[in-house]
Amino acid sequence: MENNKSESLKLVKLKDAINLINQEVNLLGVIIERREPKRCRNNAWICTLRIIDDSYNTPGLTVNVFSNKIEKLPNIKNKNHNDMILFIRIKMQSFGDGKGVSGACNQRVSSFAVYEGRTTKELQDGFVCYQYTSNFLDEAQYKSSIDYLGKVFASDSIFGEDLQSSSYRTKAKTPEKFSFLREIKERKRFDLLCKILHVNEDMSTIFVWDGTDAPPASILSNAIKDKEFSSLSVNTLLSREILRGFPTVGTILRVSLSSHLFHLVKPGEWVKLYQLLCEVHSGSWIGKATNSTTVSLAQDDHLVEKITRIYDKRISSNLGHIPYWSFPSPRGLTETDEDQAPFVTLMDIITFPKVTYKYRCIVRVVDSYPWQVEELSSDENRRCRVLLSLEDPTATLEAFLCDNDAEYFWGLGLKNTEILRKKWNRLVGIKESSMCLAPRKPPWIECCIFSYYTDKADPWKTRLYRIFGTRFLN
């Protein structure tokens, strides 16, 4: 009986395991590849690993790990690909008419534990287990084997360096190149290092930030009717209470995730999003996960410190709240009476702790109601009442331009429809010679905004905005 128990605890080398088809074995290997989890037909999850040891270092053994819950699958921590995994009672299987061999880890009968890899200088610290299944038993009897394999494959050992240069290590050696949000392009895939600010309750959408300003999104239509332009900016999707915990400088990107990535995202975490795709919907940037999108934590990455340092330097500057794409100042289309007031972003305005206040900012006019010039001042007294949709890299905001403030803004142009049309076209980025469906590029303008309320009993819910003290120059 003791002999049988001893045999059941024995580790098998990978070169021997590949010949033990349909038998249960115990294996220890270094993880060189982990594929993103996928759903099986029975709604369980599968995660595929490739492991090696000193007996079988190429091409490695594929092990499929199955679980009913995605968070119970192996989640590899070490970026250097020298973490180890210990499998107990996994079944060896053949496939492809016996030409291929893999292991199957079904957690109803199998178990595993994952150990953090070391460099040669860290070997004295031992090998720490950072994940294991609930049915995994004491690993004491395997300690010597773990120590031995860990030393052989230490990330800067001779064996480890050789593996770094092999075909399946090439990808790990390739320097990572991340884009800032200010560098994104429509329909182009990119890798992003960012901070997760918020995760929706259904876990399908996250809001991320890296402190930079995304480029102005294209607006495809000149004649916007019936409010076809409907901004999907972050402030239209989340409550003010949530927004108050966000940075007020830099674009916050909404990203739709695939279900197999949900367990990797938590508010406050810095992450690396690989192969993300960006599109423009209703004038706003939207990030989308693709079939090749992956997520990894970046909490200790030096790039995180660099991004944080750049952001801190930006917000400490007098010009830090000016949109990157208008820098150093917008073309002199407008001037304001509050020229000594500091600039703020639209997110600053939305989250400001006082209901009523005066602000100065740099924005684009992306939409209005009404839209047609003839309707801007349609009554017999030529009074102008228009609701403008303003945009900067942080948010969108609707502000009224009416009555005396409108007369001050338009000047003499308000009394002449053709002059008003020319000014209007410049304000919203319409080229008079362009076709109707040509993209609009509204210019950046400086303006003053006043926030106020219409019901003293409920000031925050009735908070509105209007433009004041701003002139459109001839």
List keywords for this structure.
alpha+beta, single chain, 5-stranded mixed barrel, 16% helix, 20 strands, 5-stranded mixed β-barrel, 33% strand, 10 helices, OB fold (Dihydrolipoamide Acetyltransferase, E2P), 474 residues
Could you walk me through the main structural features you see in this protein, from its secondary elements to its overall organization?
InterPro entries: NA-bd_OB-fold, POT1, POT1A/B-like_OB, Telomer_end-bd_POT1/Cdc13. One of its GO terms (biological process) is regulation of telomere maintenance via telomerase. Helix content is 16%, strand content 33%. The model is unreliable at 156-174 and 222-230 (pLDDT under 50). By secondary structure, the chain is an alpha+beta fold. The protein has helices spanning 2-8, 14-17, 143-152, 158-164, 170-173, 240-243, 302-315, 346-350, 403-410, 417-428; strands at 24-34, 38-39, 45-53, 56-67, 84-95, 100-106, 111-115, 129-132, 189-199, 205-209, 252-256, 270-281, 284-297, 334-336, 357-369, 385-391, 396-402, 445-453, 463-468, 470-472. The protein is elongated and about 95 Å long.
Short description:
InterPro entries: NA-bd_OB-fold (IPR012340), POT1 (IPR028389), POT1A/B-like_OB (IPR057620), Telomer_end-bd_POT1/Cdc13 (IPR011564). By secondary structure, the chain is an alpha+beta fold. The chain contains ten helices and 20 strands.
Residue ranges: pLDDT <50 for 5 or more in a row? 156-174, 222-230
Overall morphology: elongated
- CATH 4th-level superfamily of the largest domain: Nucleic acid-binding proteins
Strand order of the biggest β-sheet: 1-3-4-6-5
CATH topology of the largest domain: OB fold (Dihydrolipoamide Acetyltransferase, E2P)
N-end to C-end Cα span: 98 Å
Protein name: Protection of telomeres protein 1a
Keywords: Chromosome, DNA-binding, Telomere
InterPro entries: NA-bd_OB-fold, POT1, POT1A/B-like_OB, Telomer_end-bd_POT1/Cdc13
Pfam family, one: OB_POT1A
